[in-house]
Amino acid sequence: MRILVVNWLDRENPRAGGAEEHLHQIFGRLVEEGHQVTALVSGWPGCSRRTQLDGIDVHRTGSRYTFSVSAPQYYRRHLAGCGFDVVVEDLNKVPLFTPFWATSPVLLVVHHLFGRTAFQAANVPIAIATFLMEFLIPLFYRGTPTVAVSESTKRDLVERGLRPSDIDVIPNGVDVAFYTPLYDSKTLQPTILFLGRLRRYKRVDLIIQAVAELAIRGVHVQLRVAGTGEEAPELSRLATRLGVEDQVELMGFVKESMKLELLQ
To answer: Which one of 12, 50, 169, 250 has the fewest CB atoms closer than 10 angstroms to its CB?
Structure first.
């Protein structure tokens, strides 16, 4: 098959996260199976406008804030005549409304919707735009085959007006061989690990509050927070304010090898 994936970022983008890892893991494997995959994504200052990643032909256009406008324009100029069998829109953050401008059948993949949490993830103008755009989802995507990564995401989509019969739930996969736990290598005391970008809407503060509450009840738990983000200073202040700074370790950026070690 000839597949076009439309996503805001690719995994080389400095702001790439879990959605981009999901994209490259899934579609890189499809390339290995013999399918032709093209990705249309946004760029960033100094990036190459064309590259190959995991066998995927990556086209970059616009920027993080202009991609919703530049993507359909780039598609019409460069990709509309490529004869794609399917266009996969990875709905992440803001819908791109591909059924309105793509000439091939569209499959929608949805990780999560922001709803009111958009106001915890972005400045007010962007949050308002994101919040309002989600209300347009049923207008543009009703009847579009959709994959949600969880039952909660499916419920959100149905609440916004999509038909349950159009939505299949396919949970994110795990490479169980790579991430096999080391049963003979346990932490010395109960330990919680958070691994990810430190954004307000991720609510790492709730985990710190839980650690403090457990301490009051006489249960000593360590929390290791691996990742960077603008919320890190506030999380550090919160741990100090609650008196659990010795139980909360903000590790910052960790390499892939360390991620594996922590998860095992």
So the answer is: 50
Copy the structure tokens of residue 255: 């390499």
Q: Could you give the count of Cα atoms lying within 13 Å of 254 in the half-sphere of its Cβ?
A: 20
pTM recorded for the entire structure: 0.80
Least confident span in 40-44, 180-184, 232-236? 180-184
- What residues contact residue 53 under an 8 Å CB cut-off, 6+ apart? 10, 11, 12, 24, 28, 39
What would the pLDDT profile of 146-200 be if each residue is shown by its tens digit?
Answer: 999 999 999 999 988 999 999 999 998 888 887 787 777 778 889 999 998 898 8
CA 218/CA 212 separation, integer angstroms: 10
Residue type, 223: L
Domains, the chain, with CATH or none: 2-169 (3.40.50.2000), 191-263 (3.40.50.2000)
Count the alpha carbons within 13 Å of 60 in the hemisphere toward its beta carbon.
19
Q: Which amino acid is at 10?
A: D
Query: Around Cβ 190, how many Cβ atoms within 10 Å?
Result: 11
Q: And the tokens for 45?
A: 């200052």
- Do 198 and 230 contact (CB within 8 A), yes or no? yes
